[in-house]
């Protein structure tokens, strides 16, 4: 069954692209594939790197683009102009660095690593090809989203798709909370992760079809925040369904036994209700320390002891797990800094082993995985794609409004960065959102002179006038009437 699911996915993806607009098919196919394809399963094809869930999703996107490129050209997607070339240049440099870094990693790791009876092979040209394909597996979603999901209208559609998918998936989550995480085993014939790790007290932490219960927690955080964003942006007279969806999804997140995701969700629900300036400041406060996190950990300035003590008050078991991760990070960070520029490459060369060749370390956080395998060059290039669009929102605000739909994507990605410190939970959906934000930051819609008046009414709502001839418009997010002063008011 897992082999059939993986090999048939390109045809399923093509069906989505044939039946929907390109942008919608891009989102829906990514959601369906990520949420339901088998985890921890690879197909070894001759002459190709192993094909897994992430790689087959990228293949589906490429085939959809190839077969329906005329549909893309003839679509009614708005034309975009490159408004912020500096951001575009930074992102393009990061992309070039990511594509070139595997070659330098290979050249700097031409000797095997011998640990007791275990020999970790040198990085070979074949491994270089595998690292390049792995890089393309997240660059392709990012680049397609940067072009086709760059507008506010598409951002709102992404949020709606997330909430609808979240409501469907929440039923499976509730089922596994009650009856134990068995769906992946029943459908695909094996558990994608340890069953014992997902027993929590007298209940269970669900896995559904994702790699781990932690991934389910972050998915539920994502759709919960999307629901609250739609709740705030929807007109006040018609918020009932969004309110019920938001409350239900948060309730499912709460019972899924994902403490970190629940805490992050509570924090960002408060932030998303705050003024826009506070939201942008919050993004900066999180993103800058994250970029410097390896240096902060090495210097000892990270408040790890205080976080451990706080976690212990909530759950000694979780505090012990958190401390185990910190100890691993310290060892892996020291190992990574032995090859700080281009890293150790693949084959587990960046991990820790004892004299008997047994692995004694576990790499959980995405940041330490990237730093260990690709060095500082790969780390900075990788996280530039995720963080520069977030940091540039403050700059973008000078030329155009940032609606709640776009801000919600930014806050979801900010929460993702927090989650990436102890965990590895960056999915193809995350790369789509990162690309959508990059497109919003870099591009603006080209003005259509014939449609400018119509577009203004469509975006701002019906125009009315007060007795002093000041136009009254509806806010694009809330629908609340606002009065805008004119330069020369005239009595009527």
Can you walk through the features of this model?
With 492 residues, the protein is mainly alpha-helical. It has a domain at 1-77. It contains 20 helices and 9 strands. The protein has helices spanning 2-19, 22-36, 53-67, 69-74, 85-107, 125-148, 152-179, 183-188, 213-233, 240-255, 259-272, 276-291, 293-299, 304-314, 316-336, 366-391, 393-396, 404-420, 428-442, 452-460; strands at residues 80-82, 113-115, 118-120, 199-200, 203-204, 443-445, 464-465, 471-474, 481-483. A 3-stranded antiparallel beta sheet has the order 7-8-9, with no helix packed on it. A two-stranded antiparallel ribbon has the order 1-6. Strands 2-3 form a two-stranded antiparallel ribbon. A hairpin with a 6-residue loop joins β8 (471-474) and β9 (481-483). α1 packs parallel to α3 (53-67). The longest helix is centred in the middle third of the chain and has 28 residues, at 152-179. The radius of gyration is 24 Å and the shape is globular. Mean pLDDT is 84; it is low at 449-463, 465-474 and 483-492.
What is the structure about, briefly put?
By secondary structure, the protein is mostly helical. Helices cover 63% and strands 5% of the residues. It is built from 20 helices and nine strands.
Which short descriptors sum up this protein?
492 residues, mainly alpha, 3-stranded antiparallel beta sheet, 9 strands, disordered C terminus
The low-pLDDT segments are 449-463, 465-474, 483-492
Nearest-angstrom radius of gyration? 24 Å
Outline type: globular
Structural class: mainly alpha
Q: Order of strands side by side in the largest beta sheet?
A: 7-8-9
> Total number of β-strand segments?
9
Largest sheet: 3 strands, antiparallel
List the helices and strands in order: HHHHEHEEHHHEEHHHHHHHHHHHEHEEE
User: Fraction of residues in helices?
Assistant: 55-70%
Measured distance between first and last alpha carbons: 73 Å
Beta-strand proportion:
5-15%
Whole-number mean pLDDT: 84
Count of DSSP helices?
Answer: 20
């Amino acid at each position: 069954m897992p082999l059939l699911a993986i090999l048939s996915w390109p045809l399923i993806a093509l069906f989505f692209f044939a039946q929907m607009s390109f942008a919608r098919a891009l989102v829906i196919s990514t959601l369906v594939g990520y949420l339901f394809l088998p985890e921890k399963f690879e197909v070894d094809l001759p002459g190709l790197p192993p094909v897994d869930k992430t790689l087959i999703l990228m293949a589906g996107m490429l085939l959809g683009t190839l077969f329906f490129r005329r549909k893309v050209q003839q679509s009614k997607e708005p034309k975009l102009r490159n408004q912020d070339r500096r951001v575009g240049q930074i992102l393009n440099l990061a992309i070039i660095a990511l594509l070139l870094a595997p070659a330098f990693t290979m050249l700097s790791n031409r000797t095997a690593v011998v640990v007791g009876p275990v020999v970790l092979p040198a990085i070979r040209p074949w491994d270089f090809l595998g690292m390049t394909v792995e890089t393309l597996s997240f660059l392709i979603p990012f680049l397609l989203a940067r072009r086709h999901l760059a507008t506010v209208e598409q951002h709102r559609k992404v949020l709606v798709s997330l909430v609808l998918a979240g409501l469907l998936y929440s039923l499976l989550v509730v089922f596994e909370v009650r009856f134990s995480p068995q769906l992946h085993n029943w459908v695909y014939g094996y558990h994608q992760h340890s069953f014992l790790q997902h027993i929590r007290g007298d209940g269970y932490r669900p896995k559904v079809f994702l790699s781990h219960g932690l991934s389910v927690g972050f998915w539920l955080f994502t759709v919960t925040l999307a629901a609250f964003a739609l709740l705030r942006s929807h007109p006040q007279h018609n918020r009932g369904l969004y309110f019920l969806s938001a409350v239900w999804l948060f309730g499912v997140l709460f019972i899924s036994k994902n403490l970190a995701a629940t805490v992050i969700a509570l924090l960002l629900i408060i932030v998303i209700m705050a003024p826009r300036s506070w939201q942008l400041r919050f993004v900066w406060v999180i993103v800058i320390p994250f970029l410097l996190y390896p240096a902060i950990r090495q210097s000892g300035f990270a408040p790890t002891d205080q976080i451990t003590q706080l976690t212990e008050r909530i759950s000694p078991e979780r505090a012990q797990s958190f401390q185990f991760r910190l100890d691993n990070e310290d060892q892996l960070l020291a190992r990574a800094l032995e090859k700080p520029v281009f890293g150790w490459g693949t084959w587990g060369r960046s991990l820790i082993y004892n004299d008997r060749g047994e692995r004694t370390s576990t790499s959980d956080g995405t940041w330490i995985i990237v730093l260990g395998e690709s060095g500082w060059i790969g780390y900075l290039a990788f996280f530039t794609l995720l963080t520069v669009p977030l940091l540039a929102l403050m700059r973008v605000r000078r030329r155009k409004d940032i609606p709640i739909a776009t801000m919600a994507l930014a806050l979801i990605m900010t929460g993702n960065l927090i989650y990436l410190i102890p965990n590895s939970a960056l999915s193809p959906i995350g790369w789509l959102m990162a690309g959508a934000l990059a497109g919003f930051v870099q591009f603006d819609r080209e003005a259509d002179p014939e449609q400018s008046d119509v577009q203004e009414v469509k975006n701002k709502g019906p125009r009315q006038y007060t007795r002093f001839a000041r136009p009254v418009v509806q806010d694009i997010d809330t629908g609340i009437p606002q009065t805008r002063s004119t330069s020369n008011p005239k009595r009527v």
